[in-house]
Amino acid sequence: MNKFKFYFILSLTTVLLFSCSKNDNNITITPLRDYQEQFTAENVMIEEYLKTNYITITQAPGDQTDQDVVFAKITAGQPSIYSYLNSTTFPKLLTRPVQLHGITYKMYYLVLREGTGQSPTNVDNVLVSYKGQYLSETTASDLTTLTTTFFEEVKFPQSMFNLFTDIVRGRAEILPKFKTGTSSEGVNGAVVHNNFGAGIMFIPSGLAYYNSGSSTIPGYAPLIFSFKLYALQRLDHDGDGILSVDEDINGDGYMYTYLQYPSDYPVVPTNLDDTDGDLVPNFLDLDDDGDGYSTKVEIAAGSNYLDKNSIPK
Ligand SMILES: [Ca+2]
Ligand SMILES: [Ca+2]
Ligand SMILES: [Ca+2]
Ligand SMILES: [Ca+2]
Questions:
Q1: Of 17, 112, 159, 209, which has the fewest Cβ atoms less than 10 A away?
Q2: What's the gap in Å between 295 CA and the centre of ligand 4?
Q3: Residues 122 and 200 reside in one and the same domain
Q4: pLDDT of 188
């Protein structure tokens, strides 16, 4: 090979290697962090926060500020948020395991009160007021400081949002643990919410925005939401005439669909809400028992739509 040809190939290879690590906008593509490592690190931050901060809860029934929470760093022996872990009275700090990305996340949530109405499933619509902050760590002179940064507050929610399509998946994991309250018309026609469930959830970034962040949240930031669950709306996702809440076969308030985000499940999970085992859970399956007759037709014909031996006449 002559010298010229050699250098040409070398520089071409360099250009190719260089362009592999950059996209068209010259933005360096960083590989995603390992989910388990990232969760472990964030869980340390979350637990430190829980152990070094306390809360003050506003009790003002009928007022918008009822169950508002103020967070502050412990300065004079106040009880930490962590001290409410598995408490028999409220506030009560609990954890929920969430299986995703091939790991088990642990989500902490604080129940200020449960509420007196109904619980949403993780696929229903909810009316929620909330305040969001994110946790971050800054290191200066070898000293690591945990910081919370406010990013959003919705005091008077005007519309419901859908938990099934919520990108912050942690919210759909925790809200079913709470109940709605009562609502009545107050002065000037304003709706007054009472007895609603109220709490705080601590969401690892893997169950929120992970690497991407949002316009106001950096990547890999755990989120803290204080919230009030005012109302819910049941949905019928597959339009078969049965509300999704009634297609939650094992009745645990949670329904999942492997097919929506298959890459999030390294192993196909067992779905307890999928009668015919075709990976489409009942709440999205037009033919729940897989007998070739749609659920709608079976109901109209009076046959058992969950029993494939029960054929419509
Ligand atoms: Ca349905
Ligand atoms: Ca279920
Ligand atoms: Ca199915
Ligand atoms: Ca059927």
A1: 159
A2: 5
A3: yes
A4: 84
DSSP annotation string for 91-122: SEEEEEEEEETTEEEEEEEEEEE--SS----T
Please check whether residues 226 and 273 belong to one and the same domain.
no
Q: How far is the CA of 168 from the centre of ligand 2 (A)?
A: 20
Q: How far is the CA of 173 from the centre of ligand 3 (A)?
A: 22
pLDDT (tens digit, 9 = 90+) per residue, 153-204?
A: 999 999 999 999 999 999 999 999 999 999 999 888 889 999 999 999 999 9
Give pTM, 2 decimals: 0.89
Rounded to the nearest whole angstrom, what is the distance from the C-alpha of residue 184 to the centroid of ligand 2?
A: 32
Ligand 4 ion: nearby residues, β-carbon < 5 Å: 287, 289, 291, 293
Residue 21 has pLDDT above 50, yes or no: no
312 CA → ligand 4 middle, Å:
9
Domain span at 181: 35-233
